[in-house]
């Protein structure tokens, strides 16, 4: 059954009409045209769909939207703009860390979440944060460099 729900996404109020157990990822991509978060596994395992919920990285493919009402959702689009990218986005651009780019949404969101809780994370903390993100291209060296650049 469809329900009307009000979400806050990238600082804007969005009214959606969907089944309460619909995964947040589908609402973001299909209803709100926010294509930063990617569909990878749909099982909460690859990290491609990550978004920030109240500043913490979350896997939107396994989060029902009813649990997102009243919370602050930020997608890759909400981190920064083309003119003013978030420092994490800028680090990934500077290090040319994308190969196909599919996984980068999750990597960037996760590093942003790490920096939200720890301003100067260690290399071990960065690697731990990225441990459960899959990159099938094998662009890991550049991703690590970008993440470390963002970590200052
Ligand atoms: Fe959500 Fe893989 S698509 S974790």
Short description:
With 152 residues, this protein is α+β, with helices and mostly antiparallel strands. It is built from six helices and five strands. It has two domains: 3-77, Roll (Ubiquitin-like (UB roll)); 87-150, [2Fe-2S]-binding domain (DNA polymerase, domain 1), CATH 1.10.150.120.
Describe this structure in words.
Helix 4 crosses helix 5. Strands 2-1-5-3-4 form a 5-stranded mixed beta sheet, sandwiched between helices. A hairpin with a 2-residue loop joins strand 3 and strand 4. 35% of the residues lie in helices and 16% in strands. It starts with a strand and ends with a helix. The longest helix has 14 residues. It is of the alpha+beta class and 152 residues long. The protein has 2 domains: 75 residues, Ubiquitin-like (UB roll); 64 residues, DNA polymerase, domain 1. The site of FE2/S2 (inorganic) cluster (FES) has 12 residues, from loops. The site of FE2/S2 (inorganic) cluster has 12 residues, from loops.
Distance between the ends: 48 Å
How helix-rich are the residues, as a percent range? 25-40%
Shape: globular
Structural domain count: 2
């Amino acid at each position: 059954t469809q329900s009307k729900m009000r979400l806050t996404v990238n600082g804007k109020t969005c009214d959606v009409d969907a089944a309460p157990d619909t995964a947040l990822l589908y609402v973001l991509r299909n209803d709100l045209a926010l294509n930063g978060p990617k569909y990878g596994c749909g099982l909460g395992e690859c990290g491609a769909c990550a978004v920030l919920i109240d500043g913490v990285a979350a896997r939107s493919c396994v989060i029902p939207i009813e649990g997102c009402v009243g919370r602050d959702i930020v997608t890759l689009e909400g981190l920064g703009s083309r003119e003013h990218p978030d420092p994490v986005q800028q680090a990934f651009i500077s290090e040319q860390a994308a190969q196909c780019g599919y996984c980068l949404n999750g990597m960037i969101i996760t590093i942003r979440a790490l920096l939200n809780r720890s301003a100067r994370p260690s290399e071990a903390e960065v690697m731990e944060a990225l441990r459960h993100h899959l990159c099938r291209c094998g662009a890991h060296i550049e991703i690590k460099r970008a993440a470390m650049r963002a970590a200052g």
